[in-house]
Amino acid sequence: MMIRYASYFIAVLLPLLLFRWFAPASIGEIDFWLLWLLAMVLVALPVVYAEIALAYRSVEGPLAGMQKLTRESDASPIWRSFGWLAALVSIVIAALIISGASTGILAALTELNSAPDVPSFAVAAGLMVITVLLSLLGTAPLPIGLGLMVVGFILGIANGVPNISFAMTDISLVEWARAVALALVSVGAGTGLYWFGQNLVSKQTLTAVEANSQQAQSRAARDYRATKLVLPIWILQLLVGVVALFISGMSLPPIGQLLYWAGVLFVVSYLLHYSTQQLAHKFGLLVSLIITFVLALLLVVAIPTTWLVGILVIVSSIAVLLLSVFAGWQMKISHLRKSLNFSSEAFYNLWRVAIRLVVPLALLLALIGWVIQWLS
Fold first, then answer.
1. Best label site of 15, 138, 168, 293, fewest CB within 10 Å?
2. For 219-236, what is the mean pLDDT?
3. What are the DSSP calls for 50-62, one per residue?
4. Taking the model in full, what pTM does it have?
5. Which strand (E) or helix (H) includes residue 206?
6. Distance separating alpha carbons of residues 361 and 43, to the nearest angstrom
C-alpha cells in the first residue's frame, strides 16, 4: 500500500525538508515568490512530466531505465550518467539534512541542559548510521517521519508564527537562481524519486495483471495519462511549498526540534533506500548499501554544510539539464507522445518546447546567478 503513495509523501516532505536552506532570506520578497511560482511552472512541471514519461517507457528505475532508453534511442551512453547523478543527488540531500539535524539536535539538547560533550560531526556520523539502518525498511518510515515532523511544527506554531513583512525588491539573476533552486528541491528534480516511485507502482500493477487477458492490459494502457500522475504531485508540492515558505523561519521549542529532527531521520532513510536500490542494479544490494553509507558518511563528516548546499545546487542542476536534453532532443517523438498520452496535441507541443528550450535556458541562467553569488 505504501508503495502507491510514496511519491505523494515525497511531494509533501521535500519542501518541508529543504526550504530552510534556500528560503529564509527571501520570505518577505514578493518578487521572489513570483519568480519561484514561474520556475515551478516553467522548470519543475516539465521535468516531472519527463520523469513520469521515462518511467512509463522504461518500466525500470532511473539507472536501469536510462540504459534501456539510450539503447532504444541509439543515443550515446553518456546520457546514462543521469542515473548515477540522480543517486548522488539523493545522497547529497541526505548528507545535507543529516548535517543540519546534528546541529539542530545539539542546539535543542543544549536548551534542555542535556547536550553531550561530543562534536557535531560525531553526532552526524551516529545519525547517519541510524538512518542507513532505517533505510532497510524501504517506504515504511515515510508516514512516521511526516507525522513526527508535523507534530514538531504544531509545537512551533503554538509558540507563534513569524511576522513577515512583504515588499517588492529588485529582480536579479541571483534571485532567479535561488528561485530555480527552490523549485528544483520542491519537486525533487534531478533525484529521479518520482521516476523510482512510478516504477515501483508499475511493477506492482504489472504483477497484479499478469493473469489478466491481453484485452484488459490494452485497456489499462489506453486509460493511462501522465497528467493524472503529475498534476496531483505538482499541485501538492505547490501548496506545501507555500506553507513551507511561511514556516521555514519559524523557531521551534526544544521538544519540537527533537521531534522534527527525529522525523527527518525516518524521511532521509527513504532517500538512502532509493540510492541503494539504484546502485544495486550495478553492484548488488550489499555492496550498494556499503557504497551509499560510506559516501554519505564522508559528505556529512568532511564537508561543511554551506558547501553541501553548493554541491547540491550544481549536481542537481546538471542532472536536470541532462534529463531535459535527453527527453527533448534524444528520445524518439513517437515514444514520448505515447508515454505522455496528452489529451491534446497542443499540450504535447507546449511541453516539448519547454523541455527542449525553456528548461535548459532557465537552468543555465540560474547557474550563472549562483556563480555571481558565490564570487561576490
1. 168
2. 74
3. HHHHHHHHH-S-H
4. 0.90
5. helix 193-208
6. 10
How far, in whole angstroms, is CA 201 from its chain's centroid? 18
Which amino acid belongs to residue 80?
Answer: R
Q: Is 260 exposed, middle or buried (0-12, 13-18, 19+ CB in 10 A)?
A: buried
What is d(CA 89, CA 271) in angstroms, rounded to the nearest whole number? 9
Give the mean model confidence (pLDDT) for residues 159-186: 79
Report helix angle 45-58 to 333-340, nearest 10: 100
CA atoms within 13 A on the CB side of 117: 0
Rounded to the nearest 10°, the torsion over CA 107, 113, 118, 123 is -50
311: which residues sit within 8 A by CB, 6+ positions away? 92, 299, 303
Cβ pair 157, 250 in contact under 8 A: yes
Over the stretch 20-63, which tens digit does the pLDDT of each residue have? 777 656 577 788 888 989 999 999 999 989 988 898 888 888 98
Contact 203, 3 (CB under 8 A): no
Instruction: Give the span between the Cα atoms of 365 and 376, in whole angstroms.
Output: 17
Could you tell me the residue ranges of all domains in the chain? 2-375
Rg (CA), the chain: 20
Using alpha carbons, select from 13, 44, 14, 93 the residue that is nearest to residue 323. Answer: 44
pLDDT exceeds cutoff 80 at 352: yes
Architecture of domain 2-375: Up-down Bundle (1.20)
Residue, of 30 and 268, whose pLDDT is higher: 268
Residue with cell 515588499: 167
CA dist., res. 24 & res. 37, Å (int): 16
Residue 125 pLDDT class (50, 70, 90 cuts): very high
What is the rounded CA–CA span in Å between residue 318 and residue 269?
24
Query: Tell me, what amino acid is at 102?
Result: S
137, 269 in Cβ contact below 8 A?
yes
Tell me the CB-side half-sphere exposure of residue 325, using CA atoms within 13 A: 18
With 0-12 CB in 10 A as exposed, 13-18 as middle and 19+ as buried, what is 340? buried
